[in-house]
Amino acid sequence: MADQSRTEPVKSGLVAAQAVGDAAKQVGERAGQAGSSAVQQAKDLASDAQTRGTALASAVGEQVSAAAETQKQSLADQLEDIAQAVHRSGAELEGHQDWAARLVERGAAELSTIASTLRHNDVPALMENVQDLARRQPALFTGASFAAGFALARVGRVAVAGASKADLPEAFRGQP
Questions:
Q1: How high is the pLDDT of residue 5?
Q2: Phi and psi dihedrals of 20, rounded to 5?
Q3: Low complexity compositional bias: what residue ranges (predicted)?
Q4: Is the confidence at residue 104, as pLDDT, over 80?
Q5: Per-domain residue ranges for the chain?
Q6: What local confidence, expressed as pLDDT, does residue 168 receive?
Q7: Which pTM value belongs to this model?
Q8: What span, in angstroms and rounded, lies between the C-alpha atoms of 34 and 41?
Q9: Predicted pLDDT at 62
Q10: 159-174: per-residue pLDDT in tens?
């Protein structure tokens, strides 16, 4: 009986240790499940964010393309108007200075060609054409770039000269 009284606490301790081990195992399993659930939720959130980001980028790209297309058409219309004005100027020179008239007519034809190219090509194709011209004719491209820059500067100067102080942003109006 003395042996039984000595082994009872050991058996009780083993049973308690087994119960603690089982409880720890269950806690570990539940923690693993919770961790797996958290990982899956994080993956789902990341996937959702990626999908929304892609959709947003696509929408922005479409808006930019639409705006570029609108500006491209407007520029083509303006170039065609300029080409017609240059053509009329060339017609006035005929009979007086035929060599200048031919030169002006050639310029008007080129402007019409550029306007047509703008109307019938998308923006990436236009950029490719400009890059191709720059590679084939670097001197012509550089000269045309300078001429365009000077023309824009003159147009800007004329626009600013015709603007009143009220047309300027407040920061540029100066002190009264």
A1: 60
A2: -65, -40
A3: 31-42
A4: no
A5: 2-136, 138-176
A6: 53
A7: 0.45
A8: 10
A9: 76
A10: 667 666 665 556 555 5
Contacts of 100 (CB under 8 A, 6+ apart): 90, 93
Question: What does each C-alpha distance from 59 to 72, 123, 169, 176 come to in angstroms?
Answer: 20, 17, 32, 45
| Token duo for residue 49 | 């964010």
Q: Which of 79, 78, 86 is nearest to 102 (CA)?
A: 86
Q: Where are the alpha helices (DSSP H) in 94-122?
A: 98-120
Residue 137 has pLDDT above 70, yes or no: yes
Structural tokens at position 82: 């300029």
Instruction: State whether the Cα torsion 101-104-105-106 is positive or negative.
Output: positive
Question: Which amino acid is located at 126 in the chain?
Answer: L
3-state secondary structure of 96: coil
